[in-house]
Fold this sequence. Notes:
The protein has helices at about 1-20, 25-35, 40-70, 75-80, 90-120, 130-140, 145-165, 165-195, 200-205, 215-230, 235-240, 250-280, 290-300, 305-335, 340-360, 375-405, 405-415, 420-445. The protein has a single domain, classed as Amino acid/polyamine transporter I, CATH 1.20.1740. Helix 5 crosses helix 7, helix 10 crosses helix 16 (about 375-405) and helix 13 packs antiparallel against helix 14. The protein has 18 helices and no strands. The chain is globular and about 60 Å long. The chain is about 80% helix and about 0% strand. The structure holds tryptophan.
Amino acid sequence: MSQHRDGFTSSFGVLVATLGSAVGLGNIWKFPYITGSNGGASFLLVYLLATLIVALPVMIAEIMLGRASRANAVTAFEMLAPKAQRFWSVIGYMGLVAAVLILAFYTGVAGWVFAYIFKSLSGSIHSTDPATAKAAFGALVADPMQVLFWQWLVLASTGLIIMLGVSKGIEAVAKKLMPILFLLLILLCIRSLTLPGAMEGVKFLFAPDFSKITAQVLLTAVGLAFFKLSIGMGTMLTYGSYFHSEQNIPLTATRVMLADLSVSLLAGLAIFPAVFAFGFEPAAGPSLVFMTIPAVFASMPFGNLFMALCFVLAAIAATGAILSILEVPVAMMSERLQFSRKKATAISVATVALFGIPATLSSSLTADWTLFGLNPFDLFDYISSNILLPLGGILICLFVGWVYGLPQLQQQLSNDGQLKNALLVKLLFILVRYITPLLIFIIMLKGLNLL
Ligand code: TRP
């Protein structure tokens, strides 16, 4: 009895930490703009399928590997693979590259969010006119000094949080503030849905046009599903290594997936009705929410204050996600090279700051530095979300399905037989051994135009 109660409290803490990694700019910024650029409802449907069939199995497998090894993403594979197969640790090294690329643009976007907190309070972005909103956003991202200042502020503050070891404090804060973010999103939805012309946006989000589904769209959906759940590069593995032995991994992963999905859907319902009501372009790209959110608040009493609060909450959600990505290189360096957490954090933050420069200046100085037609910002995003994360997912599946094996998977996921989930684990095993990796592989080949 007491053991059960114990398990419950700690299980809640783990849930919050894992959710803190999953929920972030991916929900509030990336999900709406990618859905808007890829056809709306049909994309949403494909994204839901990708989350269920592809991302959820990988998430469970990845957390399991972390808890089974209780180590960072490189050491985990060295420990769990047979001696002659140490090469599996390449998954961890790929994750390291993905971490730097993701943080390079992600902390830049978090910087825009920081800047928008102050802009909301000053009233300078308070307008429902698409042209004004576009100009305000354009002025920010085209100013190299401003964007770098905000990005470095984000990096310095998250670095400090890790160095001071107050991540636990941040989790406690996030735990209290996330319900407020939820409420605020619901308020935004109500405002957005009651605007004249709002139904257009609801249709865009829920009435699918299947002709819009192409191989590229499929790959984008898989990439977003991985990005959303923080999988394919070692974040969930590292967090899994901090999981309690009694934690029900499949249940925790499923709950995080569902909660994360609801935040994304709320963000979609807050954004798209307003996009159509005010005449914004749904396919505007990364600027979409930075133009639309101010417009929704501008038509509301105390709009400036609510808007600032909304960006504060977005900044906190982004911080939780950034901390979880930074944890990957920091855990690796401190466990493998015996660096102090301070030194490991300083090195990680400096590396990200360096790669962050070209990414963040992509609307100004480095706009012409294109490769395959993508500027550094889009390129880093594309390589990480559409190549490194899915590839990491394939390798994690193959490792669990063909090297780790069913008996060990059963033992880990049932917590040594305590949970009666043998059938579920069998199903998961079939998925990660055959179906999920094959699906990702085909979608990658097609989506990258290699087939
Ligand atoms: N999931 C987070 C978001 O949607 C971002 C994130 C955190 C992430 N950790 C990650 C993305 C690891 C990929 C890999 O905002």
